[in-house]
Write a structure and sequence with these properties.
With 305 residues, the protein is mainly alpha-helical. It contains 8 helices and 3 strands, in the order αααααααββαβ. Strands 1-2-3 form a 3-stranded mixed β-sheet, with helices on one face. Helix 8 links the parallel strand 2 and strand 3.
């Protein structure tokens, strides 16, 4: 009835290994959490405690993300034909949800403090938060080069960069407290921290949910993909076009191309695969060729794009 063929990717696509970045980032931030939480209690600073709680969530997030990277390298099996690459999608989703829980806890404590504002040790807060700027800034730099290619790495980068900005806010709040003596500044900056965390987390949550449900990755222009395929020589029409993430760095595509003049050969498929990877970051395409326009494919109506 029809002739079909499939093709994987034109060449291997190996993401950069961030194992050392994860190890150093986790170690630095783990030590800083202890320091920040301790001095948060000593200085009676909700802002420092809030930032310590956020840093704790980041360390757990880094651990989950690192674990997902390791699992993604597992070889495919008969049960998991793509290996465990999808674990990176689950890690990104977990990180986003965990941060939302942290926001709730920090915000609740800050609101309670508004009813009973207490003085803080401004100088201590400034020194500790200043250390946080350095540690989080260095950790963010470790992940900067991979943030555009992997939502998992992007999550790690945004967490660390956000922490550096938050620590800067804590420093400024402590400085303002030293000049004014206003006790409400500390819980107020805690709520600001919550807002910053939420804004930086929302995009990660939205994209991780979308990709976990098999949605088209945000980086893929699905309309552009359709136009590219429709314009290929000999293609009368296409149907059953699907694009979905295998992991945070690998994207798959399947499509049926109706080509009445006959199968164009392997070179045609190789060219499509190369362009899809280069122009659309789709590195696992499967293309089925149908040469008969008279016999309708059972999946001809199974497409909405």
């Amino acid at each position: 009835m029809s002739q079909s063929d499939s093709h994987d990717h034109a060449h291997a696509h190996t993401p950069k290994d961030f194992g050392r970045a994860f190890a150093v980032g986790i170690a630095l931030n783990s030590v800083f959490i202890v320091i920040e939480a301790t001095y948060g209690f000593i200085s009676n600073s909700t802002a420092l405690l809030a930032d310590a709680g956020h840093n704790l969530s980041d360390v757990l997030g880094l651990l989950v993300a690192w674990g997902a990277v390791a699992l993604s390298k597992r070889a495919p099996t008969a049960q998991y034909t793509y290996g465990l690459r999808g674990s990176s999608l689950l890690a990104a989703l977990f990180n986003a949800m965990f941060l939302l829980v942290a926001i709730g806890a920090i915000g609740w404590e800050a609101i309670q403090r508004f009813g009973n504002p207490q003085p803080v040790e401004g100088v201590t807060v400034m020194v500790v938060a200043g250390i946080g700027i350095l540690i989080n800034g260095v950790t963010a730099a470790f992940f900067a080069s991979g943030r555009k290619a992997d939502i998992n790495i992007e999550g790690a980068f945004l967490h660390m960069a956000g922490d550096a900005a938050i620590s800067l806010g804590v420093v400024l709040a402590a400085l303002l407290y030293l000049f004014t003596g206003w006790n409400w500044i500390d819980p107020a900056i805690s709520l600001v921290i919550c807002g910053v965390i939420f804004l930086s987390t929302w995009g990660l949550l939205k994209n991780s949910v979308r990709m976990s449900l098999g949605g088209v990755p945000p980086s893929v222009d699905i309309a552009g993909v359709r136009t590219f395929l429709e314009k290929q020589p000999g293609v009368a029409r296409l149907h059953d076009l699907h694009v979905w993430p295998i992991s945070t760095t690998d994207t798959a595509l399947s499509v049926h191309l109706v080509m009445p003049d006959g199968h164009p050969g392997d070179a045609f498929l190789m060219k499509i695969a190369t362009t899809l990877e280069h122009d659309f970051a789709i590195n696992h395409p499967t293309v089925q060729i149908e040469v008969s326009e008279e016999t309708a494919c059972a999946l001809a109506s199974d497409t909405v794009v």
